[in-house]
Specification:
Order of helices and strands: HEHHEHEEHEEHE
Distance between the termini: 40 Å
Helix content: 40-55%
Low-confidence stretches: 72-85
Structural class: alpha/beta
Mean pLDDT: 78
Strand order of the largest sheet: 3-5-7
Shape: flat
Strand content: 15-25%
Length: about 140
């Protein structure tokens, strides 16, 4: 590989990473509290209202404007798991470990992960072993 090719490759990687960092920094978080069905309905109406603006709708879709639960209504990963009777489990926040995968109901076939949820390499391996599909929501 020539020096110019290496420089070009480094420029591409830097541009990509700097763009990612800029996007992460430009992410706005809107804190919401959902305690009742009325709270949930109010949130949905709010999202519909702000989505009328094309740029805001694009920011929401791109994950640049996110909604997070306030500290009083925040739930841990264990509490975001679906009931044991479900074959789909939804995890909206936090970090997914191998131990959390082991705690999933035996009939789990799909794990839906929120935008910010990360998981360890061991958790990824365990998901494959159990033939569990991962979907981002």
């Amino acid at each position: 590989m020539t020096t110019d090719a290496v420089r070009s490759l480094i420029r591409e990687v830097l541009a990509e990473e700097l763009g990612r960092v800029a996007r992460e920094r430009s992410t706005t978080r809107e804190i919401v509290s959902i305690q009742t069905n009325e709270d949930l309905q109010a949130l949905v109406q709010h999202i519909v209202k702000i989505s009328r603006d094309k740029s805001m709708r694009e920011r929401i879709i791109a994950g640049d404007h996110v909604f997070v639960l306030d500290s009083q209504s925040s739930v841990s990963v264990a509490k975001t798991l679906a009931p044991a009777s479900s074959d789909v489990v939804q995890i909206t926040q936090g970090f997914l470990s191998e131990r959390a995968i082991e705690a999933l109901p035996a009939n789990t076939r799909v794990v839906q992960l929120g935008h910010g949820v990360r998981f360890t390499p061991l958790a990824r391996d365990r998901l494959r072993q159990r033939k569990i599909t991962v979907e981002r929501i």
